Structure formats: C-alpha cells, structure tokens
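I am writing to request your help with a piece of structural work I have in hand. Thank you for your consideration; the sequence and its tokens are set out here:
=====
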Amino acid sequence: MPPPPVLHREVRVPPTPSSATSVLHIDAAGGSQQRGLTRAGSKRPFDEIGGLDEEAYARKCLATEGSVYFRTKQRSPRSLLWRVLDDRKVLELQAVDIVNGGRRGEGNSWLSYRVTFKEKILPCGVAFADPEAVDALECFVLTESKDLCTITLKRDLLTRANVPPGFDAASCVKKCSSSFLSLRQPYRFVVVSSLELLVSLADGGLVRLERKANESGAQWRETFFSEGGWSGTLTLKRINPFSHNQTVRYGNIDLDPAAIVDMSKSPCGRFVWTVGLDSWVRAWSIQTGKVILKMDLLGENREHEKRLPYVMSAEQGKLLQILRLPHSSDGTDLVNGTRADSYDEPYYLALHSPRDHQFKIYKVVPPFSSIDGPGIAVEDVRPNSQLIPPVDELMDTNIWHLESFHVQPRFDSNNAELWIRARSGTLCKTFTTTFDIVPPQYGENDHISEMWRAAWSVVDQSSLSSEELRLSAGFPGDLDVMGDDAVTPSEKWLKFLLHPARFSETSLESALCIYRKGRGMSLTPARGTKAGQQPLEERLTTAITSKIMLRRLTDEQPDYVRFQQEIQAQWQTFYSLLSHLHNLRHESIGLAFDDEDGLPWSVCADFVAPIRACSKLERRMLNTRLLDNKTDKEASRLLYTNTVDKDDDKPKESASLSYLLVAAGELRRSLPDTVQEKLRLAASADALVRGNDNAEGGRANAMFERCGLDLEITDDDFEALSAGVEILGGLGSLQDDTFLRVLEWIDEEGGFAGHDSGAQLTSFGPKVLMVGVEETARRAQCVLLDVLTLVVFMAGGLEEEELDQDFDADSMYDATVERLRRTDLFLWLIGHSRERTIKVGDAEISSEVTLFEDVFIGDWRSLDSSRQNGAMPDLLTIWTKAWIHGIRTSDTNWEGITTHILAFLITRKEVDLAVDFLPFTTGKSAWSTYVKARLFVLLADYSQASLAFRSAATECARGKDVGATKDTAALLSPEERMYFGSGYAAYFQHVAAIFEKLRAYSYVADSSYLALQHTERIEDFSGAMARLDRKKQHRDSPAPERISVAQEESRLLKIKEARDEILNRLFNALVQTGRYAEAYEALAEIEDQPMKRSDLKRLLDSCVKQDAVPSLLELPFAGDLALEADKVLLAMAKKDLAAGTTSIATPTYQILFAFRTQRQDFRGAAEILYEHLERLRHTPYHHVVQDPEDETLVQVYVLLINTLACCGDEDAWLLADSIPGVHKQGRKRTLVTLADLRREYTAELDKRSDMLYGRFALVGGDEDAMDVL
C-alpha cells in the first residue's frame, strides 16, 4: 500500500494569553480574593516561569486533557479552548475564534480564565453548555470530592478587555454536593443542555441531572437509570459484593463491565444511547428508565452464541456519534443531531468497536409504542461491509488504538467526512476519508470497501515540531564551526531559539534551569541583580559560556576555533534539553470538530491547532514520496497527480516537474550543512545586490566557485541527480521554460479571486494566520534554494555543450534570486517582533507581535467564494496565501514596500530593527532617501542625514504628492506634510526644524542657509511697503491697479514672514554654535522689529556668558541696532552692579564701557563708570577698598577722569542719577564735572596718605573717615 497522501496540515498555535494583563483568576474553592496582573506590558514574575524542572514544568504548563467547545453561530466568542493543568486542579479557558462576523473588535474575547479547584478534576469531568435564556457560557466540572461545580461566564465577562476590578468568584461559581453521587463513583460525564446532564457511574448505572431555567448550578434533581427500570434505583451494585465479580481497573477505582463509556441523547429526546465497556449498545427510555434496546456493538448475536463479552479498556475514547443526514435543498442546518424540523425522522448511529477497529452505521427508525412501552428499531445500513480503517498500514504498526473520531455529513449530499485520531505509543496521527453513509441505489456501484482501504489521507503535523525545525534553514545544530565565520555560534543559536512563537518563554527558562543544574551552576542571579531582571538572551549566553576557557595554540596565539567549537557543543547540549521539553508540548490530547464551520481542531499539551487544507504547492511538496515507486513510474505519476490536483490540465507535465524538484532537493541536501548555509546566505546577499542594480554577469558560475560545489558534489550525487531528472530527458534537456514553470508554482499560490465577506479577525486570528504565512514563506524558500542549487551546479559543474541551448543559467539565477529576495523580506519580518499596545475601550493591551503582522495586518481580507461553500479548512489556506501574495513586491513596487516598512519602524522608534532592515532598501527614490535620512537622524549620524536630506531635496521640494501619497506609514505629521511640494525653502525649513529638535545646531544653520538661498531677498522692505502705501492712498486709481497693489503687498508680507522665520532659526543656530559674526548678519536682515530686539538681547547675552567679548566688540553695530545694543548692555550692567557679584569673567559694566568708548560715547562710558565708582565708595560690602594698599578705587578715578576728559573742556560733565540702595532716598540728579572728579580724586589720595602715615583723628572726621583702633 502506498503511503497516504497529505491533504491537510495542522496550524499549531501556543495558547498564550493575549497580553500580560489579560488573565482572570477564578477560585472555585472559595479562597482568597481574585487577582490579575497589574501593570500593562509587564511580564510574569520570574518565580512563575523560572526555576522549573521537568516535572514542575509539565505540571504547570502542559495540559493533560483538553478540547475546544463550540457555541452556536449567533454567540460570540463561540470557540473556546479548555485545558486541565497543574495536577488536574486548574481549568484554563481561552477563546480561539479566528474571525467573527461583526464589526472590528465586536464580540472579541481578550481575557484568559484560570479556574482553580481545591480537589482534582475527574478525568472526562469537564463539559460545557450554551444557555438558551441568556448569552453566557456555562462550564460544568466534576471533582474528586464528587462536587458538581457550575461556572457561569456571561457575555460582559467574556468580551471584557481587562480584568474587572474587585471581581468576586462567588458571582459566577456555584457548587452542588449530591448525596446520591457521594455514594457512587462517577465515570463519564456529558452535557445534553445547560439544564440536563448525564453521568455514568462505575457500577454501570446512569444518572440524569436536571434543573429548571430559573434555578442555579447548586440546584440539581437526580434520576437514576438501570436496566431494570426505576426498581433498580434502590440497588447499589457496588455495595453488593455478590452483584458482579469481573471488574476493570481505572486509576484507583474498579469499574463494572457494564460501565458506560460513551452516551448521547437521541434527537427526539426520548432515549439515551450508551456504549458500555462490555461492548453492549443500549437505548434507555427517558420515560421509564428502562433499557428498551440492547445489542452488540458490531450487531453480533452474542447471547445466542453464549460468548463472553469483549471488555474494552477503561481509557477508551469516543465510541458513539448520532448523525442526521441533510437531505433538503433549502439550506436547513442538519448537522450532528440538530434539526429544525420534525424529530420523528430517521437518524443514524455511528459506532466504533475497539475490538477489531470496525465502524458500524445503524439507521434508527422512528420510535413506536407497544404494550411494553415505547420501542425503537435499528437497521445496519451496510451489513455486508467491514468498515475498518487500515491504520496498520497507514502507520506501519500492528499495535494501535483509536483515540477519537468524528463523522461530518456534507450538506445536500449522502457523502460524509470521517476524521480519526489513532495512537501507537507516542506516535499520534490524524487521518481522514470520504464515504457514502447510505449505500447507493440499485444499479450503482458501491466502492465502499475500496475507499476505506485506499482513500485515506493523513494530516501533516505542524512546522513547529522538533523534526521540522531541524530541517529548517538556519538551524545551527549541525553546522561546523569555521575560523572565518563572521557570526559566532551563540549569535546563530540565539537567533534560532528566540525566533517569535518558536519556543515558549517558559520552556526556555525551564531548559536553562535544568542545564544549569546539570553543570553544577548556581540558580540564583548574580550579585546585585534581581531575579528576572537580566534578559533571557544574556542569561542563556552566560550559562553556556561561563565554564569555557579560551586556550592558546603552541605559538601562544588564542585558539578561537576551539573556543567556539566548545561553545557550539554546549549549545547542542542545551538544545537537546529544550527539544525534549518542546516535544512534550506537542503531545496530542484531543480532537474537536466545529460542525458549523466544518473545521477540525487538534489539541496538544501546549498547542491548539485548527486543521487547514494544503495549498497546491504544499500538496506537491508534501506528497513527493508518492513518486518513489521505481518499478512503475507511470502508476506513481498517476497516483501523485490524482492526489495533488485532479483538475490539472497538464498532469503529466506537473508530475515531471515534481520529479525535477525532488532531484534538486536531494542535490541540495546532499551538501554539508555548512555549505548549504553558505549558499543560502550568499544567494540572499546577491538578491539584495540585484535589487540595487549592481549585478554583474556570470553570477551563477561565480556562486558555484564561491561555495566550492565542485568539491562537495560527489559522483554518487551526480548520478542520483541524473537519474532523478531522467524522466525529463536528463540534465541536458532542461530549458529555461522548465525552471520557470516550477517558479510559477510559487507565484500561483495567491491566485484566488473572491469577494470580501466582511468578517473581521479576532485577537487570536492573526496568530493562526501568521503560522500559515511563515509556513508559506519557508516552503517557498525551500523550493527556491533547491532550484538555485541545481541552476548553480549546471552553470559551474557542466560544460556548455552538455547544456540545452535554451538554458540561460544567469537568467534562471536572476529569476530565482528575485523571488528569493521577496521571500527573505517576508521571513525577516516574520522573524522579528516588537511590543505593540492597542486600546480596547478604556483598556490598553500590550502584546508581542511579529513585524509582518504589525505592518501588513491592514491588508488582510476575509476572501470568500461560493466555490468553497464557506469551508473553513479551505478558507484558512486561501486567507493566508492571498494575504502574503497580495503584498506586491515586484521590482516596480519593491521600493515603495521597503520604504514603507522602514518608515513604519522609524515612526515606532524601533531604531535597531530599522538598522537591520536597511539592506532591503535601495534608496532609488527621493522619498526612500528622505526616510533613510530620518533614520540617520535617530542614529545621531547627522552628517549622513544632512547629505541624504540634500539628495532628496529636488523631488521632495517640487513633488506635490510626496508627502500626501508616499507617506503610507504616517512618518510625517500633518504640519510637516505642508513643507513638501512647496519649494526648496519650505523643505529645508522642515529639515532645519528636525535638526533643531535634536539641538544639532550646526546642521540647523546649514539647512537654514540652504532655505535662505531659495527665498527672494527684498533689499528695502520698508521702502517697498511705503511706496505701496502711497499708491493705496490714490483712491481714484483703477481697480486692476489696486488689486495689483494688494497682491504685491501680500506677496511681500509672505516673503518677509518666511525670511524672518528662516533668519530667526538661522540666528539661533549660529548663536548656539558661537558663530556670532554670522549671527549678526542674520540679525541685521530680520525685518520684524520685536523679533529683532529679542534676538539682539539673546546675542548679547550669549556673548557675555560665553566670554566672547572680543567677538562682540568686533560686531559692526550701527544705527538702531547700536542703540538697542546699548540699552541691553546698560540694563545688564545695572543689574550686575546692583547685585554686587557676577559669574562671568568680564563684568558687564566693563563691556558697556568698552562698547561706548569704541563708539566715542565718552560721556556714556563715564556715566556707567561713575555709577561703579559710587557703589565702590558707598556700598558697605565694598569697604575692603579702604585698604591703603588697594588701588581699585584710585584706578577707577583715573579711568573716569581720563574718559570724561575725552569729551573736551566744555563738555567734560555728566549727570549722575540717584542709585537706589547707595544714595539716600529722594536725592536728585546731580551734575558732576571734570573738576569735581579731580577734586574728589585729590581728596582720596590725601586720605590714603594720611592713613598710610597715621595722620588722622581717632574720633570725629567727615562721613568718609574711618575709625581706626
């Protein structure tokens, strides 16, 4: 039997909470107040995820039981994942809807719910129901204490974005302690509705629990069913030691062989169908409590043959399913026992017997009444057929058991899908087939036996499994460490391990804990570091390298190669531990089926996986093993074609191209891992070079030599390659068209035409789609690298005469690397993530998302088509392919896409990611160059930024649509966009403003100069405005002339405002950089007088504070500027003189003195000097100058006399105002002449002489005398 084809694939997603703040803890034991994480964006405490050994990790993070419950289509959220954790004491709930039909965000669930119980949850002790009276979810849980807990989560709690403050668990948890159940042991548990439950007992009994719609979960009424009817309710079989002898061990309890394994209520509501461990199928009457029908699971007459019953394992899974076949054409929903019309129509039982793995389909006719009560009849629809799945051959084992199954009838058809999950040891696989439930009419062939033997397909496991990860590009585990490697093993491993959504943080922390214990390292953090404060990346690197020494060679040089090899060995050890934990996460625990969407779900210990249909490329790649029949290639080709695409118009050609892909893949995998990695990196680098139009000829042959393929490909590899393409005529027959058709398979992936159904993604939906996006990109990368390896080998390893004349190696190389560039772009976006915060109502939710999702989530559309009939497995694939292939990245669009991504990262201040992404950009357009300039600004590389800004100036200054249409990432604010397309002056003003925010004033000045160069200069603005005013006074002038005057006035005012703004920014930058002469020139051109005065004050203040007095005095102040400068300096001097102290090197009164004397204003210079003199003479804290040895006062007198003498004999005078704090209040202005100053100077000298020689009185004297003791 050939291997089963792969037509479906699991999309495994870890069920992590939407954010760190979105976990609601519910204590069903009635303990302490509930808690939720408090700070938005905070991570879990280190003690919750670190320091876990394998046992603690499995108990805390890996579910032992779980499934997905599906509510009705009208309820939202409708798909809820439930898992049993922490030694069966925690029940975790999380919504896993992919899309909803409402508006964006409406009905979404953001919270995860963790319900904690005091006692363990019983196996199969969790069930759910959807109440009809209220929009809520009810969860029923049986614990080992035999309590029935009812947890009610209403819609407002299910759709909250944050944990409600002051939440009380008692508001949603009700507990019922049944005295009847306390005497018996529950075994299995199912929910009929929110008001009716069925519980099977260990003694073979059946209990029906009921309540009314207005009663709570603490009020249940019990009805016990037994084979003898109501009379049997008084017999406790397990208490009677003589009732049975044979038992089945189940954990710590013994089960009666009649214990019910599976049960379901009939659609008419009159019967309960059950299957016991003894393989008896029973129909129980709800009315009488009796068994009205009892038959063998396979319909055998066991009582007549007096055979002992076959007792199945107590751990047996699903055995029974009730079916209603949809036979109407009006679209009525007739699925899985729910029907809108009469309940008296026939229905079907799908049964599975573990004894020989056989399925049976029974038709149940409408119930009838008899003298003994209601009756029921069944009919085997296929009595002569043995419906046995060939799992022995499918899994290549003879020891296996069926864990679960589901039959899904198709609408308006007799056809049905059967999904089974089979396990053999640790290996668990899902298979599916299609068959007719009811045999065909007379005259039609029934191929049921053939279909059940050969029409099975297998569901491929996720790309996140350990086996798939080892085969993925970039896996560093098998790489050889070389001395010339540019990237260290630690860098490669960290990139691989920390890839988004690849390994959980908890598994990494636990593997690190186990690794540190194994190496005898301390688990406590380093001194001075709190637990969890050190990044995981740093802790991993420290643990791996901590005990590795750098040895030396014989020549005393460091042996770096050996050092890195030892590090690589330690990383491999760590990965083996992590891989083991990762495998535990993939342990299968459940299979669920969404009947309304037709979507199967797989549930693992730490993953939940919707099962999607494979795309055509995936079917081609995953089913190449069907071509392995070497003896009958035609049969292999036919089987392969029928599997991949039955509608292919060229099946033979498609199969031949698949042979080519298989051969190319085997050729690449025959190369050492190091060579494969070298080829991949070199091809990716070449792809970016080609995008920058720097490509040269002979690239394929150059790649062959660069990777040394001539030394790596052996004769055996060449022979295998030749045999693989023999069906195509050999290597010499391969043409460009052959390779292009293979490459077109990748291009056709997104070729789907449909309409937008309007469905919106939920918070969980992007996680599912992102797994599909990564799988699509990885698959395309694999195909491209396979084709590239073959092309490169043919270019460099074969002679030209051995190749077909229609084969151009460089053209095929370019075609391949062009697609590889696109794939590498997507993989880079998928492999990098950032923290995103969104606002939902009043709550802020932070979560880690990949860049692909963050950048392109707005491009996703819920495409639909009547051809798919809304089948969710097909739609998931369509949505994924259409999303990734809808992003146009051809040569014409490459610049726009990459620039958008770069601008997006810059807008979010993700500088490191933007730098890493920079090689993907080409910088051909002005907008791309401008965006790069903005990145250089963030990197503080202002010189490169300035050059880039200038390079982009022409198009940005002239192009009207640059800011409006090309800024798709909202890099520019609305105010900034106004500067684009408005001329060079406006553009360079915008550039100057960017530098000004960062205080890069030298670049502000450069940009302002450029802006000033592109503005019109008005030589005499005041004169021009005066002339216009005179023209406006002529009121009898013609209207056109008046309009012209008004327009000219408006134009001049706009020019003046623009120039003043530029000049003001230029002036400020020049002052900040100490270029005072240039600052004065800019100041002189400013027309706005208030602005001019303010800038002048800033200029003088800067010169004084920076001790740039010589530069100040060299400035050519004239006219009004000189007068204003004098006023400013005078105010500064008076302020400093009044303060008595100064923090500057040169006192401001001296600066003003020099400024005035430089302009021959000797009287003004003398006035400020006289005020200084008066303060020296009369201010108390200046008494130090009375020291005869201090010449300060004398020097001031001399300088003042000489200055005033410069005014001439007739003008040698000054007016001295009263100085507050020095002179008495009310003193009038006085006239001080040169003679007065000379007289005072002589008196000062005499006084100093008397003091020096001791000629003065001890008491008395004038007011200036000083008492000396």
Remarks:
- The chain has a mean pLDDT of 84.
- The first helix runs from residue 46 to 49.
- DSSP finds 43 helices and 41 strands in the chain.
- Residues 466-553+566-576 form one domain.
